[in-house]
Design brief:
104 residues, 4 helices, 7 strands, three-stranded antiparallel beta sheet
């Protein structure tokens, strides 16, 4: 039988992308801060990849990513640098949402 500390349970409520390091990942970090006001954005830089998380829900909008990149961007291009993600994902033409249906 395993035990889970409250810190581990909190960690399990974090959602968001795990991305290959680069310009797009940096733009997504900034977009996460803009598109999720009032939420703390956690960034875990592992050099080759970057975990970008918020608690319970994260929304990333195409317009915000474009603004941060300084160029046009299609949301399906996010998949190219998206190594993995935490939570469930809901994709739309102009945004992506990472979330948990249940909270721990």
């Amino acid at each position: 039988m395993s035990t889970t500390s409250s810190a581990q349970a909190y960690h399990n409520n974090l959602v968001g992308p795990v991305m290959r390091a680069g310009d797009l990942a940096q733009a997504v970090i900034e977009a996460a801060k803009v598109d999720n006001p009032g939420k703390e954005v956690f960034v875990d830089d592992k050099r080759a990849y970057i975990r970008i998380h918020t608690e319970h829900e994260m929304i990333l909008r195409q317009a915000t990513i474009e603004e941060e990149l300084g160029r046009p961007f299609k949301m399906n291009d996010l998949e190219v640098d998206l190594s993995s993600f935490a939570g469930q994902i809901e994709s739309r033409d102009d945004s992506v949402r990472f979330y948990f249906a249940k909270k721990l």
